[in-house]
Design goal:
Blueprint (H helix, E strand, L loop, with lengths): L1 H31 L4 H6 L11 H10 L1 H32 L4 H13 L8 H10 L6 H25 L4 H8 L4 H12 L1 H17 L2 H6 L8 H5 L10 H28 L9
Helix pairs in contact: 1-13, 3-13, 4-5, 4-7, 4-10, 4-13, 5-7, 7-10, 10-13
Amino acid sequence: MKSRKWKKIMLYVVAVIWLLATIIPLLYVFISSFKTNDEMYRSALNLPIQWKIENYAVANELGHSFRSIGNSLLVAISTTIIEIIVAMMAAYAISRKRHVFFARHAYMLFVIGVMVPIHSTLIPISSMAADWGLKNNFGYLVLVYVCFNLAQGIFLFTGFLDSVSREIDEAAIIDGCSDFRLLRSILLPICKPIIATEAIFSFIYAYGELVFSLTLISEPAKYTVPRAMLSFWGEFSAQMGPQYAFIILSVIPVVIIYVLFHNQIQSGVMSGAIKG
């Protein structure tokens, strides 16, 4: 009994430490978003002498926060939807069609794709965008993000589908299900937890990615959040308060999306999997 009690206490201690490690940086950024540059440099950990709410207006003026957040949401949501659909269909073919010759080889190619360094592709991707006139094109940026998330999605979905009993497939096929209906009506509800997990990874990556957005997007009207954040840095100084205000505004959609998908992970385990 004592050992169980101590284990429980240790778990609570770890949980509290993790909570503080998560909340304190966010609280620091929130408080700093109301400070002037002088207050930041003089007393970064103290409360502001005068709470400068206008930092949020300056953040919108310099970084066009609402427009850039909208651009990032458009790119991130499009990337997530396309990547989930394509990865799920590919994972179904690889997991359930192992008798097809190229299925296992295709899976190995996708696994190798996880190990490809992103920075090694910057020059060819940028050159193709310039040759095809696709600079400042959201569609091309989304395509790049989908390609780099696809390998991870297929890897996760294939592993999850391999753990699902094939007796479910056989029962559905006997009832007259086609491959598409089997995937849509039976396997997708079972895969909700892993789909939600991969959706979070894909969304956060596309929402906060800087390297490709910096390389492929140069029009201020199409800046995403990471690209717009560079607007607060001048040649010799930086607008610290408005920059922190911009960070707070840009984090809100990510927190909302995470909370929504987190609930799905908890409630979606094996929902409606077995018939009869």
